[in-house]
Amino acid sequence: SINSHLGKEQSRRDDLEALGYVLVYLYEGRLPWQGLKAAAKSAKYEKICERKLHTSLESLCINMPNEFSTYLKYCRNLEFTDEPNYHYLLELFDDLFIRHTFVRDYVYDWNLIRFRRGSTNNRISPILKNDVIERPIILTNKRSKSLTPVVAATTTTTTRHLNQPQQFIGDKAFCS
Predict the structure, then answer these.
(1) What CATH number should be reported for the domain holding residue 51?
(2) In this predicted structure, what is the pLDDT of residue 154?
(3) Which PANTHER family does this entry report, sorted A to Z (predicted)?
(4) What DSSP state is assigned to residue 104?
(5) How far is Cα 149 from Cα 59, in angstroms, rounded to an integer?
């Protein structure tokens, strides 16, 4: 966070701001202050701080959905002792997730990439039938704790419709 570079005491707002930068990095593949060079580490950190201070959220998130800049603005406006509204922050990205019709099937890209590398068939894609997604189940080799490129079966996930009601337990939303 910017506050960490300025030597200020850290709080939840700084953790959330740092997470925001991770999200920007995951979306864009880079951050404007990456790759800065300096003779000494302290000079490099100073350059990074200057770049962060002079990079507006609008320019940082220019090619991204608005939720990213909204998230970072919210974090930067928190005071040291403020308790963040985690539900609001999660809802920002849940809405984005739904708008892009992503499905929370708990099959992650890095598992599919590993599976593809070990497979002779380079095409692994979910099968959608009657709002149910079928994806491969990738087994874990318990001895080596690595993924084995074996499809034991398929798992099904029902897609969530926009008008489907949700139940909230704590900060987490569940489809009913």
Answers:
(1) 1.10.510.10
(2) 47
(3) CASEIN KINASE-RELATED
(4) -
(5) 41
Can you read off the two tokens belonging to residue 132?
């149910």
Question: Is the domain of 6 the same as that of 80?
Answer: yes
Residue 142: domain span: 109-158
pLDDT tens, position by position, for the chain (176 residues)?
Answer: 676 665 666 778 989 999 999 999 998 998 888 888 888 988 888 888 888 888 899 999 999 999 999 999 999 999 989 999 999 999 999 999 999 888 888 887 777 776 666 655 544 445 445 554 455 544 444 554 444 444 444 444 444 444 444 444 444 444 43
- Among candidates 124, 121, 133, 142, which has minimal Cα distance to 160? 133
Strands of 45-161 (E only): list them. Answer: 127-129, 132-141, 146-158
To 5 degrees, how large is the angle CA 156–CA 23–CA 48?
A: 160
Number of independent structural domains in the chain: 2
Output the six-digit token pair for 51.
Answer: 């770049």
Q: At 105, is the secondary structure helix, strand, or coil?
A: coil
- Per DSSP, the three-state class of 150 is strand
Both tokens assigned to 53: 């201070």
User: How far from 70 is each of 77, 91, 92, 111, 175, CA to CA, in Å?
Assistant: 11, 12, 8, 30, 26
